[in-house]
Amino acid sequence: MNLIIQGLEIENNDLRTLAKLAGADQIEQITGRAFRLVNANQQKAINIAQYCTDACLDYAFVDQTTQLTDFGLIAMDMDSTLLAIESIDEIADMHHIKPQVAEITLRTMRGEISFEESLIHRTALLQGLHQDTLQKVYDERVQLSPGAEKLLQSIKIAGLKSMVISGGFTFFTTRIKTKLGLDYAAANTLEIEDSKLTGKVMGKIIGAQGKADVLKSIRNELGLKREQVIAIGDGANDLGMLAEAGISIAYHAKPIVQKKATYTINYVGLDGVINLFNPAIQ
Predict the structure, then answer these.
(1) Is the pTM of this model over 0.90?
(2) Helix (H, G, I), strand (E, B), or coil: what is residue 193?
């Protein structure tokens, strides 16, 4: 196995210590924030996990033969994953009710209430908001997560299809899909009447199961096996989607997601995903 170590600051002493703990043959630099420890022993993962936690480093044991080109599709959650914001919280901020909505969002991401229930409650609080506010949020608040553009550039070079699957709203996913050149997008649709939000969602809500179903549908449409899919998410409502992928990545995620995912990225950006594979595409 290769042991991939990533972090905002990696000391030489950290690398030497980790290489010794893992019994690795050599240390290879991937980027200034990523290193590959070759022929690492995964049986020593417990000691390595504790060391990396204390040193604020991301780590992953990856099969040496795994390459980015082995995959055909990468699916990403939107809010707090592909984007560095929670779009519904930012809409609520424009409506001066962000604390109420953000609290429901947090409870949902922790898995305390169902996503479908929380979306109904949060959307209801937006009743009466003018639709122009959505564009204002997109123009003024939307930010890509660090490393997002580099990740997308690399997967295009490698020939992968890209998709955003969101429990948020199509107003944002449609624009993000166009802006970033994604291949697919799926989300919920806000009901608007007389240029104002009614506080309701149109059609069936894309929640935890909905995200999984969408990913499975696109995967089958492309003729891909589960093992050929990478999925990235951060909240409890992403668990079903992550389970439909061969490689699941918890990105700056809640503990419940980190426990279930193949790999966890807590410190570096989304470009950390491409560093997992050998050889990494820069």
Answers:
(1) yes
(2) strand
Pairwise CA distance, residues 274 & 282, whole Å = 8
Q: Does position 281 have pLDDT exceeding 70, yes or no?
A: no
Q: What is the CA radius of gyration of the chain?
A: 20
Contact 164, 185 (CB under 8 A): yes
**CA 184, 89, 245, 61: dihedral to nearest 10 degrees?**
130
Query: Which residues are the active-site residues?
Result: 77, 79
What are the structural domains, with CATH classification, of the chain? 1-64 (3.30.70.600)
Closest CA to 232 of 158, 138, 155: 155
Find the mean pLDDT for residues 87-109: 89
State how far the Cα of 268 lies from the Cα of 271, in Å rounded to an integer. Answer: 8
- Report residue 219 as tokens: 């995967």
